[in-house]
Each structure stands twice: as C-alpha cells, then as structure tokens.
Amino acid sequence: MRWRWSVGAALIAATTMSVLPSGAQEQGQRVGLQLGAWRPTSSSVRRQIKSTWPYAALTYSLHAAEGKTPVTLLLDWTGRKNSDTQSKVTQVDLLATVRQGVSSDREGKSHFYWTVGIGPVWSRIEEMGDKKTRIRAAGTVGLGWAWQRRAGLELRYQVGSSKFNTGALLALNLGF
Length: 176
Fold this sequence. Notes:
Blueprint: H1 2-18, H2 23-26, E1 30-40, H3 43-48, E2 53-62, E3 71-82, E4 87-100, E5 111-127, E6 130-148, E7 151-159, E8 167-175
Keywords: Signal
Protein name: Outer membrane protein beta-barrel domain-containing protein
Organism: Candidatus Fervidibacter japonicus
C-alpha cells in the first residue's frame, strides 16, 4: 500500500510540473529539496508519538514575470512511529505557496522573505490498530532566509484539520 501512495504522489508531482507553461523554463524555474524537523503543537501528540519528526519536501519554484509574485509548489512528507504506544502518523501535503521578498534583483544575494500557502493534506493516523485516513485542507505561513542562490533556511507554522496535522517546522532549503 505504501508503494502505491509513493507512486501516486510522484505521478501527481510529475503531472503538475509537465503541464506548467513552457515560458516558466525561460523565467528560471527551480527544483529544490527541503530537509528538516516537524514539531506538533499539541502536547498530547508529542507524548503519544514523539516530540520531533523528520520532514522532507520537494519544491518547484515558478518565477513569475517582473512585478508578479513567484509561486512555489511543495510536496511535503512527515511522519513518526512510536512502538511503545502503537501509534503512527504519516502526512503528505501538496501546497501552493507565495513568497514575498523574493525578486530578480535579490537573486543570489542574502535576503529574508515571508511565505504563505494552502493545499490538501493526506494523513494516516494509526492508534492501537485503528487506522484513519483523511484528506483535508492545510494552510501554512512562515519566514525564510536565503543566504545563497540555492540555499536557505525556512521556519513555518502549518495548520491542518486535526491536532496531528498542526505544527511548526524548520527546514534547510537546497536548490538544484
């Protein structure tokens, strides 16, 4: 079942990237990777699962024309298992975010930016053998610091449809 979800998520990402206008390539599209840590804001979730979870995301930046706001698509994954409580949470998000403070004159220079986004979140929660799978909406807001053309640090707060999907994350951005 896990491999089916992985294949499905990869197909969604590939399809999304393939239908983008060809002009996006001329405007400096960029693919990246985010690696970091996710911390649920609910203390009951931290006690039940663990306090810090691994986080990874693929990013695809669409650099808009001059005077327009750049949009980034994020395919996020986070999850954690606790064998002691027989609990496990996995979530995958597809978020469309906008970043302010990013412009062509700042490309390659250190600068701060803020980001806000929305999209669907798929989550599977397993508690004592009971499995619940949900697809709901999620929103995110955060601050970032780009210190090189293809590297940076981002701190975001994400709100999901349940206490399992709400938390803060700190991620290192690496562009390709």
